[in-house]
Amino acid sequence: MELPRVSPSPSGHARLKVGWESLSAIANEMRFLAVRQQAEVGEDFEPFSPDWDTYFAYARAGSAAAWTARTIDSKVLVGYIIWLTTRGLHCVETTFANADLVYLAPEWREGLTGYKLLKSGIAAVRPRVDIVRVETNDLYENGRMGVLLKRLGFRRIGSVWQSGR
After folding, report:
1. By the 8 A CB rule, do 164 and 129 touch?
2. Containing structural domain, residue 93
């Protein structure tokens, strides 16, 4: 089964609805978008093979949540931010929201759609935590994602280095 391709409205304005959804409710739809996300980031990253049981356990514990974007007309999932919330191990009085997965289908990236998805997702999670983090790879950081995050007041605080694969 393949995810239907959905085009933005003819006027160029994104016709999307954003909001919280149960991670278990979107898991099947998310798999199709995740395959597309994997193809974009390339072979330097691990294949998308999530431990759904652990994600669902985190969700039941209140530590994982899905901020989604759906088309208004056909209700097709076209984007998501999966937030994982934790208390800091180095500073237990601080809570963090980490954007574990962030994706918006390429056909929806024109205009301000990506910015609005990020901005609304960050605004939705911010009251729950002290610090919001979004990890990106070089492909996204040096492109639109880095620009969007800077516009939203984020600053780069480090790098992730990887060995293997």
Report:
1. no
2. 16-151
Q: Measure the CA–CA gap between 106 and 131, rounded to whole angstroms.
A: 28
Q: At what angle do helices 144-151 and 113-125 cross, to 10 degrees?
A: 50
Q: Can you give the pTM of this predicted structure?
A: 0.81
Edge-first strand listing for the sheet containing 131-134: 16-21, 64-71, 77-87, 95-104, 131-134
Residue 102, Cα to own-chain centre: how many angstroms? 2
Residue 44 maps to which CATH number? 3.40.630.30
| H-helix segments, 61-143 | 113-125, 138-141
Half-sphere exposure of 51 (CA within 13 A, CB side): 4
| Total domains present in the chain | 1
The more confidently predicted of residues 3 and 61 is 61
- The first and second tokens of residue 24, run together, are 């278990």
Give the pLDDT of residue 123: 95
Domain assignment present for residue 7? The answer is: no
Q: Return the DSSP state at 111.
A: T
Q: How many C-beta atoms surround the C-beta of residue 83 within 10 A?
A: 28
The pLDDT tens digits of the residues spanning 72-119 come to 888 899 999 999 999 988 889 999 999 988 888 988 888 788 888 999
